[in-house]
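Below is how a single chain appears once it has passed through the pipeline. First comes the sequence as given, then the structure the pipeline wrote out for it. We keep one example in the README because the format questions we get most often are answered faster by looking than by reading.
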Amino acid sequence: MFSSPRPLPPVAPSRGEGGFTLLELLVVIAILGLLAAIVAPQALRYLGSSKSQTAKVQIKNIASAMELYRFDNGGLPPAGAGLQALVKAPPSATAWNGPYLPQASALTDPWGKPYELKAPGEHGDYDIFTLGSDGAPGGTGEAKDVGNW
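Resulting structure:
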């Protein structure tokens, strides 16, 4: 009834269908390298500026919290308390109605350093600022100071 199937004869691969040549692979690698060389600096510049943008947003949030503190307590935090007064009540703040910031980590800049408070400030009643990536006054790019001015 049923006969066993006959094995098929082996098929020899035709020449030219084996895969990519070394030259084709080198061309693709060169194109990928060229794209990486063009895109990588743009991406790094964008990532760097995002830390400065993050610092600006965080400083605005801290300044808003400072205004709430000033409204509740009739003035700025005492010199010894600094920005920590927005998270934990200083002993002299009898009308403290905080915390004005949800976490103490909100007082740390994107580079891992604490934000600084200067009262009276050079740009207003108070200055909230970070010295940027280099931790030194002045600078350009990511090393530029960022503040509420």
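The chain has one domain: 23-147.

See the next section for the split statistics.
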